[in-house]
Fold this protein.
Amino acid sequence: MLKLTVIGYADVVDEAVDRLQRAGVVQIERRESEQDGVTDMSVDEPRLFRIEKVLAEAQFVRDFLRRYHVADVAFGTFIGEKIHVSESEFLDMEPGADFLGLYRECDRISARLADIDRETTRLESLVAELEPWRDLHLQISQWKGTEHVRLFTGTVPVTSSAQIRQALRNEVEEVTVAEVGCDSTSEAWVVMAHCTVLDEVKSALSLTDFTEVGFPDLSNYPAEEIARGVESLSDLSKERAGLVERATVLAADNYPHSVALVEALHTDYDALQVRSFFNQTERTFVLTGWVPENRQEKLTAALAPIGADIDMTFEQPTSEDSIPVELINSGVVRPFEVLTDLYGRPDYFAFDPTPVMAPFFFLFFGMCLGDVGYGIMLMVGCYLIKTKLDVAVGVKKFMDLMILGGLASAIWGALTRSYLAIQADKLPTFLQYKPMIDPQTELMLLLGVSVGIGVVHVSIGVGLAAWQLWRRGKIVEAISDHVSVLVFFGLLIASILGFIGIIDASLAQPLLIVAFIQLVLLKGRTLDIVLGRAPLWHIALIPLKGFLGLYDMVSFGSDFLSYTRLAALGLASLYVGDAMNRLTELAGGIPAVGWLFGALIFVVGHTFNVVINMLGAFVHPTRLQYVEFFGKFYEGGGRAFAPFAPRTKQLVLHPHPAGEQEGGVAS
C-alpha cells in the first residue's frame, strides 16, 4: 500500500474527483489543515441539497416499483437481482424530464392506493358492524325513538344475553328488548323504554356487558347501507386492480433504470461529499489517500489527462500511519479470505493468517461432512449457484469456499469409504476396499486422529505467536511464553510414546521430568534474571510464576479435546445418511408404489443431510479457527481497504451496452 498525495490547481478539482472515482483505486483520507492559508475544502451545500432531494425521489420510485417488479433471473427475489448496465451509460446517468413524470405518476398511484386501502378497511369494518342489523326494517336515522319512547341499539354477548335481559326487566318494567340479529359472539338488540324510566334503563344497562352501537353518518335501512358498502368495496377493488396493473407496467419499463439512477445519484453525492476530506488554498487543493502498489499504474493512467495541472507523490507507509488492508492471496487460498474477514482484517504490518488457516479448514470441513456423494452434491450445487444465478461477488467467493469444502469432503469420504453412507457390503465390488479409517469400527482411532490434528493446529498457532514476538525483537518473551510451550508439547509426546513402548521406555520418565522443569523455569521468567532484565530477588518468584504457567497447560488440554467435534460431526453425517438409506429400504417394500416412496426418501433425506451437515461443517471448523487457533496469536484490528469508487451494490457494469449482455437486464 502506498501513501498518495495529490496537489493540483483548484480549477481541475471537479475533473480530478471524477477521474479518481472512476478509477476506483484510492481510499481518500481526511487531511487536517496544518499550515497558514490552508483550510478544509467546503462542500457545495446548495448542490448537495439538490442531489439529496432528487435522490429521495429516485429512492421512492425505486422502492415503489420494486413491489411490482418481477425478476427476470431465477430466484431473483431471494438472491437480490443484479441490474446490468454499461459503464459509460451509468457514469453519465442523470434524472431528466421523463423521470419527473415517472415520479409524479408513481406518487399519484401510491397515494391513491393508500387511500383505497384505508377506505377498504373502513368499509369492511362498517359492513361487518352492520351485518347483525341487516334484518332491522327501520331506517338508521330513526334509531332515536319518538317523543315518549326512547330507543337504544347495541350488542350483548351471546353467552350472557338471557341474564342481561332478565336483569333489565327486574329493574324496569316499562322496557322492551327486540333481538334483530346475531353472530357467533354477540346479539344485536333494540331496547325501547318510556321516557320516564330512561335513567333507570341506562343505569341498569351500564351494569351489564351491553355496548351501545350507533351509525351517526348513515341514514337508510341497514340492508341498503350494507349493499352500498359492498358495491363501494367492489368499485375500490376494481380501481385498485387497475392501479396495480399500471404500476406493474411502469415497473417492467422503468425498474432497472430506477435502480441504476439511485446508484448514480449516490455516486454523485459521494463525489461532492468527499471534498470535505480535502484541503485548499486560494488556488490549489490537496488530498491524501492510499492506493495499492499493484494499481499505481492504473491511477497514473486515469489522472494522465490532467497531469500538467496536478502533482502526485507516492510514499511508503510507516508504523505511525493508519493503513487500510487489502488481502492478497493466490487463487486457491483466496476463497478462505471469507473466514479472515468474518473475524477481522489483520493489521497492515501483521501476519495474514489466511494461507496457514486454509489447509486446516479444508481438512476440518472434509472430516465433518466426510462423504464422497455429499461432497459431489455440494460441489455441483455451489457451482450451479455461482455460474447460473446472478449473485454478488461476495456470494461467488463463498460458493468457491463451499466448492473446496465439497472437494475436501469427497477426499475424506474416499479415505473412509463413505459413499452416500451406504453400508460396505452393499457397495459395488470395486468400492469395497479397506478404508484408511473406518469410523464405525475404529472410533477410538478416529478420535485420536482428531485430537492429534488439534495438537498440530494449536502448536502452529503457538509457533506463530513466538515468531511474531521474535520478529519484533522480543526474543526472550518468545522463548519464555511460547517456545517453552512447544518444547513441553514435544517432550510430553515423546514421553507418552516411551510409556506405550514405541520408543525406548527408559527415556519416558526423564523426558517427562525435563518437560516440566523447563516449562517452570522458562515460564518463571528465569531468562529475564539471567540476562539482567529483572532484579536478582525475582528468583523467589520463579516457582510461583512457573507453576502458574504450568496450570495454563490445562487450557491447552481442553483445546485439544475440542477437536473431537470433528469426529462427532463426521459420525453424525454418516449415521443420519445411514438412517435415510434404511428408511429407503423400508419404503421400497411397499407394493406397487414402494419404489416411488423409496426414491423420494432417498433424494430428500440425503439432500436434507447435506444441507444440515454443511452448516455444521462450516460453523464448527470456523470456531476451531477463531478460538483454538487465532486465539493463540492473532489480534486483528486492521481496517478493510475501501476505495473511493462509483456505487454499484446492485449493479453489474459492463464496458459495452447493457442490452448486449446475455441474460442481463437492460436499463
The radius of gyration is 38 Å. The chain is about 55% helix and 10% strand.
